[in-house]
Amino acid sequence: MSITDPMGELLTTGANELASADPRLHRVLVNEQERQAATLSLVASCSPVDPSVLVSQASAAVNVTAEGYPGRRYHAGCEVIDGIEQLAIDRAKAAFGARYANVQPHSATTANYAVLSSLLEPGDTLLGMELESGGHLTHGSPAAYAGRYFTAIGYGLDDAGLIDYDEVAALAREHRPKMIVCGATAYPRLIDFARFRRIADSVGAYLLADISHTAGLVITGRHPSPIDHAHLTTTCTHKQLYGPRGGLILSGRDADSPAPRGKGTLAQFVQRTIFPYFQGAPVLNAIAAKARALDIAAGPEFDDTVGRIVATARSMADTLAELGHDVVSGGTDNHIVLVDLSRWGMTGLVAEQALEECHIVVNKNRVPRDTTPALVTSGLRIGTNSIARRGMGDEAAAECAELVDLVLASVQPLGDREYRLPGAVRDLARERVARLCREHPLPGYPLDRVAVTA
Ligand SMILES: *Cc1c(COP(=O)(O)O)cnc(C)c1O
C-alpha cells in the first residue's frame, strides 16, 4: 500500500500520532510485534495474520453500527458495509462448501453458545468431549456456562489416546442427549464426523462440529469436512484461518432442515439467534478482515502453508519421539503434537517457562488421565500454524523439536513451578532460535530492526 492510497494515508497518520501522543502504548505495541517476529511460536491456538488482514481490521469499517444483516439493517448508511459482509458470507460459503454462513459471531465461544442456547432449553442434555481429554470449555465443562446451564455429559479417550466412539455411542444411548458436540482443542488425530452423525441420528440428537483448530485442514481437504455431516459447524477465524479474532457458523445439507418449535429452517433459526437473541451489532472491521483471510484461504499459497502445517507437525512428533519423549497417541494427523511429561518428572508449567526463557513459546496442557491442575499440567501442546507461515519445512521443524528437547533435557525441576536451567543452554537455544527466525521471517513483519540478543 503506497502513501497515496487513502487507507495507507489514514493508517500512517494514526501510527505517527500514536507514537507521538502516546509513546508508552506505542512502545508496548511495537515490543509485542517484535516479540512475535523474534520468537519461535509453537502455540497451537493462534496464527500470525497477513498484513492485508491486519489492515482490513484497522479500516474505517470500525466506525459503523449496523444491527441486522445485509439488506435488512436497523440503521441507515449501511450500503457499503452490506457489500463487505456479503463478501465475507460468500467467501465463507465457498471456502467450506457450505449452504449457509453467518460471519457475525464475535468468537467461537459466542458461536457455540448461540447454537447451544438456540437449539437446547436450559437443563437439556449435552454430550461433549471432556476438557481433560482435549475438549473445549464450551462443550460442557462445569467451569463454563455450557456446564452450568445444560446437563453436560463428557466422553473421553481410550488407552491409545483416541476418541472412544463406542463410549460416545453408549453414553448417547444412556443419556439421550439433545445435542452432541464434536471437535477439540487439544486432539492430535482425525475426527470421524460421519460416525458422530450416525451416533447423533441413532438417538435423535443434533450434531455440532466445532472445527476451530482444524478449519485450515478442512478447507484444503487434509481433514474430512463436517459441513454435510453436522447440523451446524462452528469455527473461530484466528487459529487455522490466519484471520482476525472472531467466529463463523456454517451449515451444509441440514441448512434447510426444520428448526425446533416450528421456527423455520435451521439456517433461519441460527440467523435470528446471533442477532437479536445473542449479540448486538456486528464488528464490521473484523468481518472485513474475515473476508480477506477467507480469500487468502482459497488461494494456492494457503494450500502450501497448510501442507507445511501437517508436514512440520509430523516431523516434530517423529523427532520428539525419537529423542525419547512420550508423544500422546504416538503421533499426529494435524497441527498438534501433545507431549506427556509425567515420566520426566516435570510439570507442563516448568517446561513452558523454561522454553519461554529460551524464546520458544508453547503452552502447558493437560494430557489424558492428567490429575494436575489446569495451571500446572503434565504436558505440553505444540502447534505448527506459525512455523508453517514462516515457511519452515520438515528439516527446520526437526530442528525446532531438537531445540525443545535440548531445553527440556537440561531443565532441573525444583517443584511444580520452580526450576533451574543452565545459562549456557539458554544462550545456545536463544541463538539458534534467533537464527531460525532470521532464516524464516514472518512474511511482512520486519525483523531487521529487531535486536535479537543471543
Ligand atoms: C479456541 C476454541 C474455541 C474458542 O474460540 P474463541 O474464538 O477464542 O472463543 C472454541 N472451540 C474450540 C474447539 C477451540 O479450540
Folded structure, characterized:
By secondary structure, the protein is of the alpha/beta class. The protein folds into 2 domains: 236 residues, Aspartate Aminotransferase, domain 2; 140 residues, Aspartate Aminotransferase, domain 1. It is built from 16 helices and 17 strands. The strands form 5 sheets. It has a 7-stranded mixed sheet with strand order 4-10-9-8-7-5-6, sandwiched between helices. Helix 3 packs antiparallel against helix 11, helix 4 runs parallel beside helix 11 and helix 7 runs parallel beside helix 8. The longest helix is centred in the last third of the chain and has 23 residues. It is globular. Bound molecules: pyridoxal-5'-phosphate. The site of pyridoxal-5'-phosphate (PLP) has 14 residues, from helix 5.
Largest sheet: 7 strands, mixed
Quote the beta fraction: 5-15%
- What is the CATH fold-level name of the largest domain? Aspartate Aminotransferase, domain 2
Which stretches of 5+ consecutive residues score pLDDT under 50?
A: 450-454
Map the helices and strands.
Layout: H1 6-21, H2 23-38, E1 40-41, H3 51-57, E2 68-69, E3 72-73, H4 79-96, E4 100-102, H5 108-119, E5 125-129, H6 145-149, E6 151-155, H7 165-175, E7 179-182, H8 193-202, E8 206-210, H9 215-219, E9 232-236, E10 247-251, H10 266-278, H11 284-297, H12 300-322, E11 326-327, E12 336-340, H13 348-357, E13 360-361, E14 363-365, E15 379-383, H14 385-389, H15 394-410, E16 412-413, E17 419-420, H16 423-439
Parallel strand pairs: 1-13, 5-6, 5-7, 7-8, 8-9
Antiparallel strand pairs: 2-3, 4-10, 9-10, 11-12, 12-15, 14-15, 16-17
Helix pairs in contact: 1-2, 3-11, 4-11, 5-10, 7-8, 12-15, 15-16
Bound molecules: pyridoxal-5'-phosphate (PLP).
Pyridoxal-5'-phosphate binds at residues 45, 107-109, 136, 138, 183-185, 210, 212-213, 236, 247.
Site (Plays an important role in substrate specificity): 238
Family: Belongs to the SHMT family.
Enzyme class: transferase
